[in-house]
């Protein structure tokens, strides 16, 4: 939406970047900078928080993957069709803007209530992959199923360290014992 709000007519005018430091003699090259920048900065902050939250997860417990199925489309399917339908939104069209805001609040509420807030489609850009896995704990013979988010390729029969966030198994690397030829 920030790109849609850019005032391309200002490209013909001489460059003026003093608007960044709030100089009144220079106008930002956006039609509605008061709406555009807070939304952009809010989205950027959410992305940074998501990436930081995933990087701070410390997998400690081991699981043995019994079967694995890569499900890349699940990260995109629930959001992409809805967001694309709002691509023509303009901050100057108040009705569409309010509708978009209500929709985004509704989407957050649905994802929060489903416990799947961590499944941001942009995570695919940072090489996170979503898997459906069946697994067991090393000291247990009971097999469980779940969804795993990982930056490493998962393989059946391998042992991995994991942590659970919102019922999503976060796997960052193979278990050290497994990598060193341990038990």
What does this structure look like?
The protein has 183 residues and is of the alpha+beta class. The chain is 34% helix and 21% strand. A five-stranded mixed β-barrel has the order 1-2-3-5-4. A hairpin with a 2-residue loop joins strand 4 (159-165) and strand 5. The radius of gyration is 22 Å and the shape is elongated. Residues 178-183 have low confidence and may be disordered.
Strand residue content: 15-25%
Spatial order of the strands in the main sheet?
A: 1-2-3-5-4
Report the major sheet.
Answer: 5 strands, mixed, barrel
The averaged pLDDT comes out at 76
Unreliable spans? 178-183
Q: Gyration radius, to the nearest Å?
A: 22 Å
Structural class of the secondary elements? alpha+beta
Shape from CA axes?
elongated
How far the N terminus sits from the C terminus, by CA atoms, comes to 53 Å
Percent helix: 25-40%
Please, how many helices? 6
Give helix and strand order, one letter per element, not per position: HHEHHHEEEEH
Tell me the number of strands.
5
